[in-house]
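Sample intake sheet
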Amino acid sequence: MLHIHSLHSPEALQSLDIRLAIMDHDESERELHENWSRPFKDSNAVMRAAEPYFQNMASARSSGAAGLPTCVIANMFCLWAQKLSLEQSLPCYAYFPSGANFARLLQAFPALVSEGRLRVGENGKFIESKQTITVPGVATLLDIELPNSTKINPVSVTAKAGLDLSNVNGVIINTFYELESHAIEAFLQACDPTLHVCRLPLIPRAFI
């Protein structure tokens, strides 16, 4: 959304029926977790900033205001939004802009930890050991090749994001089935059968 805001004026966005919620945040929030990756640091700052926005939205909803959001679409690093959406009885969907392979890795991360397939130090941080990682649907890789956003954090932080993924109402993945069919099929097999998984661009089937 920040990218959208940088390309268009507020007036232009309103003409497209897009309304941005500008939320003030405290830069110091990012420094509370120095050993986290940048996406998770940003996510924590956004979480703090979003709380009053959701509180205001709840008040507006209780007073019968019109034009309020009907669902929450949360970036893959912001799955904490489930709690805020649940408080207002809104469905929450996870959005993966970077494709199905990352979605599948995050989904599998809790199992990689609990089954001991990733080495974890006494400080709770991931230990690189050039160990082979096998995740159905994803090409075999070494543990050092995992995305930085998953391995820089304390393992518990990334594992929680993977567990949170199992509780959303649906998942939106920016991908083409023809490019990532193995990852998509493996992701679906590991999901609750009732979960909606939508892929963007929508071609030609809207839901898998």
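Comment: The chain is about 40% helix and 15% strand. Helices lie at 2-7, 10-15, 38-62, 81-87, 100-114, 148-151, 155-165, 177-189.
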